[in-house]
């Protein structure tokens, strides 16, 4: 049976987190990666609360990188038991993030970077796309075109990819099947698109030892 | 008449709206149709046979839509990408999908209970 993970949700405070946990559980997720500033006791209380409903929470650090050095510094300072996602703001940073295996995922913000053949040649990491991008760029024709082109490249070149919600409020959360339907805009096979919310995220979570 | 000749396999999709209050179901269906049209165009909209099914004694926040089984993925994508209904922030959750209306109703009852 498939397990599902939402690889990116954004929670700032503990009070905001409980509706997220409740909702994720209801939607059928068994793991979620949380970008948060919560520390120590609050984080422990939250993970405890989530584990009561069979939801594993993993901390996620998202780093914006303008240059190659920013990526390398983020890798050096990577906290233990925390997913590292790089958001490249330039092609140089994008290339570095794609080939450095200390990075877990590379968030493709189509506003700043595009996948080209050189990127594909050096790519070792998973790419990440969020539902939030699709909702944000829905009105922007040019950006939406770039997003769909990115999906086409991912499909055609069989790039390993993760689709997450990128939700900053519970209203932005969707069920795993719904998240997986996004690549189906361009005729992706259902099995392959489901891998983007189940097999691929769990490859990182279990392979990197992030899940206990 | 042509609909009878071109018989298709249908899929029935139960969609729940969030937040549950003050959402007009006609407007919800319109927003799904509009999103599908924006993503895939008028020809695919006609070909998908997307339509709303009105069912008595159903939760007020649930809407049932049906489509050709070939277009299921695309319809789900359109439902996923709806984030506002009639100017209000909203989200649409797919509760379940089924090949017959009878099985869909049974699944909804199971999920809700």
UniProtKB/TrEMBL annotation, chain B:
Signal peptide: none annotated. Coiled coil: none annotated. One of its GO terms (cellular component) is ribonuclease P complex. Keywords: tRNA processing. InterPro entries: Pop5/Rpp14/Rnp2-like (IPR002759), Rnp2-like_sf (IPR038085). GO terms for biological process: tRNA 5'-leader removal. Pfam families: RNase_P_Rpp14. It comes from the Archaea. The keyword ATP-binding does not apply. The keyword tRNA processing applies. This is RNase P component 2.
């Amino acid at each position: 049976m498939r397990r599902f993970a939402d690889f990116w949700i954004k929670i700032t405070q503990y009070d905001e987190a409980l509706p997220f946990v409740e909702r994720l559980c209801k939607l059928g997720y068994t793991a979620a990666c949380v970008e948060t500033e919560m520390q120590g006791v609050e984080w422990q209380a939250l993970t405890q609360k989530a584990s009561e409903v069979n939801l594993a929470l993993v901390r996620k650090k998202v780093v914006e990188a303008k240059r190659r050095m920013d990526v390398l510094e983020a890798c050096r300072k990577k906290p233990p038991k925390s997913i590292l996602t790089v958001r490249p703001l330039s092609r140089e940073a994008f290339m570095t993030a794609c080939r450095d295996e200390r990075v877990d995922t590379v968030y493709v913000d189509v506003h700043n970077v595009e996948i080209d053949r050189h990127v594909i040649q050096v790519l070792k990491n998973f790419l990440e796309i969020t539902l939030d991008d699709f909702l944000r760029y829905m009105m922007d024709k040019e950006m939406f075109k770039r997003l769909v082109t990115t999906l086409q490249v991912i499909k055609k070149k069989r790039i390993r990819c993760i689709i997450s919600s990128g939700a900053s409020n519970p209203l932005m959360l969707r069920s795993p099947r719904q998240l997986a339907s996004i690549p189906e805009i361009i005729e992706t096979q259902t099995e392959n698109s489901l891998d983007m919310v189940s097999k691929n995220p769990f490859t990182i979570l279990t392979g990197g030892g992030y899940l206990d | 008449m042509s609909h009878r000749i071109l018989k298709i396999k249908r899929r029935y999709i139960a969609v729940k709206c969030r937040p549950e209050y003050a959402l007009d179901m006609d407007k919800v269906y319109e927003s799904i149709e509009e999103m599908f049209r924006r993503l895939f165009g008028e020809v695919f909209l006609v070909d998908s046979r997307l339509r709303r099914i009105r069912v008595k004694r159903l939760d007020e926040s649930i809407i049932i839509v049906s489509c050709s089984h070939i277009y299921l993925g695309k319809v789900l994508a359109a439902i996923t990408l709806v984030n506002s209904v009639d100017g209000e922030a909203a989200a649409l959750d797919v509760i379940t999908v089924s090949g017959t209306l009878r099985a869909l109703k049974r699944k909804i009852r199971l999920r809700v209970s």
